[in-house]
Write a structure and sequence with these properties.
Layout: H1 2-10, E1 14-22, E2 28-35, E3 41-45, E4 51-57, E5 63-65, H2 73-78, E6 86-87, E7 93-94, E8 98-101, E9 104-107, E10 116-117, E11 130-134, E12 139-148, E13 159-168, E14 172-181, E15 185-186, E16 190-191, E17 209-212, E18 214-217, E19 231-232, E20 244-245, H3 255-260, E21 264-269, E22 278-284, E23 290-296, E24 300-304, E25 310-314, E26 320-322, E27 328-332, E28 347-348, E29 353-364
Antiparallel strand pairs: 1-2, 2-3, 3-4, 4-5, 6-16, 7-10, 8-9, 11-12, 12-13, 13-14, 14-29, 15-28, 17-20, 17-22, 18-19, 18-21, 21-24, 22-23, 23-29, 24-27, 25-26
Length: about 375
Amino acid sequence: MIALAAEMAHAAAGLERTPYGNTQDGRAVDVYTMTNDRGLRVRFLSYGGVITEIVVPDRTGRLDNIVLGLSNLREYETLSAHYGAITGRYANRIAGAQFTLNGQTYHLIANNGANTLHGGPNALDKQVWDVSPAQVQDGVAATLTYVSKDGEQNFPGTLTTHVTYTLTNDNALQIDYQATTDKDTVVNFTNHSYFNLAGNGSGPVADQMLLVNADRYTPSGPDLIPTGQIAPVEGTPLDFRQMMPIGARLNSAFPQMVNAHGYDHNFVLNQPAGAPITFAARAYDPRTGRVVDCFTTEPGLQVYTSNFLNGSVVGSSGTTYRQTEAFTLETQHFPDSPNKPNFPSTELKQGQTFRSTTLFRFATDAPLPPLPR
């Protein structure tokens, strides 16, 4: 605890900006550091809104960064795993790289086989956002703004998006999304942070525990496009309604697990009618005692166990990133919703405002907070 107290004593609460470098086409990028009254720290880039660090204590007070990051701006520009980024215009997959809206078919850019993944190859995660401080009563916040022109990545409508990161003094990171358009379009946003509660680069997350507040999920085919079915998790490796080690059923021969090479599935969250925000998931690391609880207004949660990280990238940890060394909690609408009329709609009409909130609350098992209800 002495080391933690010393570091906290030198951590000034507030928002700091530091130059980070220039993109390949010469755009200046800054790194922002948010620190709350307790010394919890979040760093993010104006490039893609990438969250590079979330530094939290373990049960003994030891501080570690619990998200995977890269070493420099050029890697964030050129690598495609969406480390920590704001993801859109349409997070997750759109089948056949096309959808029809108001009788018109829009042909997107295929960047995942025949499909579009996370908005295309030059989507929101590859843009430089404007960043401004935001005033909050109990913490520190910043708002990122980006205007995506009509036709960018072949999506219709000029889309103005504001994303506010708030680090509260009770150790929560809240992400608020707001978007408007001048033409009917489709939107789906998420944050693509890879969590490892034992610390960035500490090895597999197989022994870390996960609970997902979902009785159902959306099965997908070999291309990871949803079939349109909504199926029960009961009796499958996707049943995380009780705390379960992530690795307990990771090597299952269940076809859904084979298709995805692990977990890469959208869970249909149990959302009580009228609830302003829903408890989505809890992850817990028995080794360090770290806990993260996730709450969201979104109907879905994509759990992904970094199945396609293959050791070819050396991260900011100084070690290579490999399969199952992290997991995501991507709050979202469902994949391929523009082509699945039975899924919750992702259409945003001209004159409407899209709003969404996700919150990650950090704690330790000293004591373990009661499970949200």
